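Lecture 7 notes: from sequence to structure.

We start with a single chain of 217 residues. Read the sequence below before looking at the structure.
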Amino acid sequence: MRFRDRHEAGELLARALERYRGQPAVIYALPRGGVPLGAVVARHLGMPLDLLIPRKIGHPFHPEYAICAVPEHGERVCNPREEARADPGWLEQAEAQERAEARRRRRLYCTTPAPDVSGKLAIIVDDGIATGLTMRAAIRDARQRGPHHLVVAIPVAPAETAALLETEVDELVTLDIPEYYRGSVGAYYEDFEQTTDDEVIALLASVHQSQRPDVSR
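Now the structure, written as tokens:
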């Protein structure tokens, strides 16, 4: 399966989540790439949109290869084999740097109070998954917020990663679990341009504005 862009993937995910319409819930998007999809889903279902901001720790010699991921709140999630090989001092420093970056992004992106998800449905949305480490960190963060039901919704994931995530959430909704994964999320999109900070801020503001009650009536 191949998606035209993140907006189309978000529309398809929104349809797959239609059965949740009307439930007390919060949509959580992972920035930056998950926010365009999360915004589409939130508008379609009429649910508030917030962020979870896990941060990847890349291999010191291959930064694109994740060896750990750090949630905003809670302990890091790691590939055990790679964690054992990493220098502990370097890993602690990298974790501190990524936590600081998550705090910076929270201040930059979020200008309204976070919606309360305690006792409600939480749906975590991203534009796809490879190793799954950042999503697993996001799941840990979301669990601490006390939702009664936790769903992860993604367009595409490798079979092995999808099977692992299914053990950590109440439901995994995915549009495609290919038999042979192409190696990167971007390979499943025709347009996979990087989402900018300004786009994240604008999308969050537009969803919030569209869901404000009309006090003029």
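The chain has seven helices and eight strands. Keep this in mind for problem set 3.
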